[in-house]
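Below is how a single chain appears once it has passed through the pipeline. First comes the sequence as given, then the structure the pipeline wrote out for it. We keep one example in the README because the format questions we get most often are answered faster by looking than by reading.
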Amino acid sequence: MSDGKLRSRDLTSVAAAEAAHSSSAFAGAQYLMGLQLFVRLATFSTNAVAFRLAGSSAFGVASIKLELLLSTILFLSRESIRNALLRTEPAEDKRRPSVREQRIINATLVSICVGGLLAGALYMVYGGDSQSSIPYYSESIAVYVLAAWIELLVEPLYVLSRSRVLFQLQARCESIAVSTKCAIVALVLLLGNKGSDRENKFRLLAFALGQLGYAAGIFLSYSWSMRPVLGYPVAWCYRPKRVSLDDEFGFVGCKMRSLIAVFMGQSLLKHVLTQGDSMVMSRIARDSDMGVFALVSNYASIPARILFLPLEEAARAVFTRSDARTSMNVLTTLAKLQLLLGCLFCVFGGLYAPVAMPLIDSKGGSANARVLSAYFMYLPMMGLNGFLEAFAHSVATKQQLLRVNIWMAGCSAVYISLSVLLLGKYEMGALGMVMANMVNMALRIAYCCWFARKWFISRDISLPGVSRIAPHPAVLVSSLVAGVLSVVLIRSIDQTVIINRLAILALGSALGLAVLFAMWILEKPFIQAAKEIKAGSVIDKKRE
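Resulting structure:
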């Protein structure tokens, strides 16, 4: 009798802990959404100024080449360790440095050391490259490398805040850093624009100094904000110490080292897949083509940054600590969300991008508008793949992760080959890169769907029917009708006058609101499921 009560209490406490974590993760995602909204609006405004003051060539070099250098240092140094640490349990006592937190600290210090070595090696390779005619090119590379290493100093504090689900703190710190970056970029560009030369002499250095300001801002913000949260000095987060955990004594532990090694190989492939377009363009494309692709991707990826990334991070946190049925509910709801958003992106983004693009870039012409339309078609695939890969990476065993890496390697080879073909032989420019990305994303989605189906069937979880994932038929019809009306509207109104373009966009917004209203009325079960996931009550229902 007492054993039964004890087990009941244990199950209740486990259910409560899982529900609390699920609720905290998805409720905390609203802070990340607010952060991404602020970041994208601030970046949108800064890019609008920078594109005009710096020119398309400098903007392309900064957004493609230098950002590739930065992301290579950061991604390869910290991504595998971050993914491995997500599988650790949070600290039992959040007011003192527990053994598990010390293991987290030790692992993140590896990121800092690896990042320092990688930053030095990449600077030796690229620092002496003076082929660019843009002033302060080598100096900008040095500043970007320094900024990357300073940003890595945040890792112990970042991972500890993430393990404690402190999304509000993260949003506050990154908002300060982004504000600092945008202010520095704008001020330096305005300062360089005062000279007598036609071209801004600081047009590339401004982006480098802005990135340095971001790195310093986020490090200082986390250091200050985590002081009252940790319960111990921030300096202890940078002190390695041997600890004993799970019958292992050392800095990291054999199990963690093995998991990090698996994620390292996966991170290399993921980096090629996510930054493959930048790698190919930095070698083949002209600086002006890179500027067009950067401009389009920055504008069109606003929905992805605001919605997809925060939800993906929250879903990853839930997948790693939830049972199979809860994971199925979360994954099904997120998949339907992507299909509903896809109706909006494909119809309204694809059709109205050519109308809006001349208002953003008057010199781009119809070619840039076609790239923007294609990118809106690509967005739903990007979001769906993000959730599916978050699930696969969270629940896969070591052997399964190795098979994922093999498939990723094949996708990478197909993607790079197709990119070189479309960009080099057919000279399709930025449009070719978007098309190659779509093929690459389709291959990755196919594998993740196969993996998820096999994983759930092996646990006797019934797969959802098409009606549960697909949008309501009336929603599809309303989207189709809105698309037809949009085509008639765009073709019947003269777009040579700016006021007419604004009128078309206003009418298109009205049609979009009508489709959203149809979704709100017809998708009540989906909306209720989303609310339950945010509240964590899906776990409670399962336990009952």
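The radius of gyration is 24 Å.

See the next section for the split statistics.
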